[in-house]
Amino acid sequence: MENKLRNLYSLQIVDNALDELEKLKGDLPSQKKEIEDSIAGMESSRNAIESTMRDAFSTREKDDDQIVELREKLERYKNQQHDVRNNREYDALTREMDHAAATITRLEKEVGILEGKGMNAKSDLAAVDVQLAELRIALGEKEVALGEISKENEQEELKYRHEREKLLARIDKGHLHAYERIRKAKKGRAIVPVKRGSCGGCFARVPPQRILEIRQNDKIHHCEHCGRIIISDEFVEATSTEA
């Protein structure tokens, strides 16, 4: 069990070092993520606007074609009026002409609405494209800044990543799961030493008898108050000396 504790604590040390390297990046990662999310959302909106524009212009063109056809048909009906043989034919032709004229009027109104809708969408699309261009420039700047910081610490980070991988191979999956869960809940500090009789994480008092048990290094102990894994000061010193 002592070796298991040592591996877990070594993992905490490595993760602490990686966290410090991450802090050097400041808010850049979160700013980059925020811009990426904005771009994704805006691209989705752009697709919707573009679809609206295309549908409006496409329907407008179909209506325009139909209006042309109806006007040609109306002109033919007018010419046919001179050749009707009786009132029944004349009335039927008049009804066809009235229907064609009404349809033309309706379609012309619809064309006007579609034209406005399409032009508004086109204007919105242009505005979104400007915003997207600005966001992509901002994203590029963040990526360059992050790249420079990452390059400065690349070798050190690779070293710690390699050490972490080696430690993960030695740690029991159950213990690793508990460690990761606590680490996530406690802002990175899953394992802390007992200092002056108190938990090094939440500073709650640890009973003397419990401290004696912790010093045995024969099982994993958790703080009764914060749930962190607690180890003795002596264990920390011994592990640091070995490192």
Short description:
The protein is mainly α. Helices cover 77% and strands 5% of the residues. It folds into two domains: 2-24 and 155-242, Orthogonal Bundle (Helix Hairpins); 28-152.
Characterise the protein shown here.
With 243 residues, this protein is mainly alpha-helical. It has 2 domains: 2-24 and 155-242, Orthogonal Bundle (Helix Hairpins), CATH 1.10.287; 28-152. The chain contains 7 helices and 4 strands. Strands 2-1-4-3 form a 4-stranded mixed beta sheet. The two termini are 18 Å apart.
Tags for this model:
Helix Hairpins; 7 helices; 243 residues; mainly alpha; 2 domains; rod-shaped; 4-stranded mixed sheet
Structural class: mainly alpha
For the secondary structure, the number of strands is 4
Shape: rod-shaped
Reported for the largest beta sheet, the result is: 4 strands, mixed
How many discrete domains?
2
Question: Which strands sit side by side, in order, in the main sheet?
Answer: 2-1-4-3
**Gyration radius, in Å:** 37 Å
Separation of the first and last Cα atoms: 18 Å
Estimate the mean pLDDT confidence.
93
Order of helices and strands: HHHHHEEHEEH
Figure out the total of helices.
7
- Fraction in helix: over 70%
As a percent range, the share of strand residues is: under 5%
